[in-house]
Design goal:
Layout lengths: L1 H17 L6 H14 L3 E2 L12 E4 L2 E3 L13 E10 L2 E10 L5 H19 L7 H14 L3 E2 L5 E3 L6 E5 L16 E4 L2 E3 L5 E3 L6 E3 L5 E3 L2 E4 L7 E2 L4 H5 L5
Bound molecules: magnesium ion.
Length: 247
């Protein structure tokens, strides 16, 4: 899974380099698929429940599951990319929201809070804690900043399959839910909006956007719960750090 995670991280870094004004999301997807296959991986999204592309790319008010297509990246866009890679039968999953050029201060704050929420959730992914500790930590950061957590979409276990138990909501009570054990591998993924929490499904049956048209961000890592201390982040390869992406 760590090797799959490195390919995921490299793919996200590549998408970040190429997400510049003028390129379409379909072109970004093609670059990602080429890279993933060159590394010996398979894009997990492609064909997953019929999803037609190698990555999900969701601009602006689109929260998740955007089908790469004709959207041409523009200055001021937020571009959320979500990448799953299968390598030797194991899956890693990560997402990142890129800011294209300059954005309003409130949009920058949304980005900062999204990263902070992910870091707070990851910090709770410790053996002996419960799923609700992750959920509550994410929710506290997001709502404390005056933003909303999308409630109908959740993080998840990941490993031999893209989506496994347990579900990891981005809201909930500390001390509740399944107990975390060393070796569990989890995709923790706050999806947050600048406005309200409600979302809707587009006619393509995949893309999900905010109901009120507010901007959304999505940050995700696959982590492995450790015997002691904080988890190992499997999708935080050097390539991603080099590209200046945190966490
Ligand atoms: Mg995920």
């Amino acid at each position: 899974m760590a090797r799959a995670g490195e390919v995921v991280a490299g793919t996200i870094a590549l998408l970040g380099e190429h997400a510049q004004p003028g390129i379409t999301t379909a072109e970004l997807d093609r670059l990602a698929e080429e890279f993933i296959r060159e590394q010996g991986g398979v894009p997990t999204s492609k064909g997953y429940r019929g999803f037609p592309a190698a990555t999900c790319i969701s601009p602006n008010a689109m929260v998740v599951h955007g089908i790469p297509g004709k959207h041409r990246v523009e200055d001021g866009d937020l571009i959320s990319v979500d990448v799953g890679v299968t390598l030797d039968g194991l899956v890693a999953d990560s997402a990142y929201t890129f800011r294209i050029g300059a954005v309003e201060p409130e949009v920058q704050r949304l980005l900062d809070v999204g990263k902070e929420a992910l870091a707070a959730g990851i910090a709770q992914a410790r053996a002996g804690n419960r799923v609700g500790d992750i959920s509550h930590a994410v929710q506290a950061v997001v709502e404390g900043a005056g933003f909303s957590v999308v409630r109908s979409l959740v993080g998840h276990g990941v490993g031999r399959s893209y989506h496994e138990e347990p579900q990891i909501p981005n809201f909930g009570d500390a001390g509740r839910g399944a107990r975390l054990q060393a070796g569990m591998t989890l995709a923790i993924e706050p999806m947050i909006t600048a406005g309200g929490p409600d979302v809707y499904l587009h006619d393509d049956d995949w893309s999900i956007s905010t109901a009120d048209g507010s901007m959304a961000v999505h940050f995700e890592h696959t982590v492995a719960v450790a015997e002691e201390g904080p988890p190992r982040i499997l999708t935080a390869a050097k390539s991603r750090e080099k590209a200046g992406l945190v966490p």
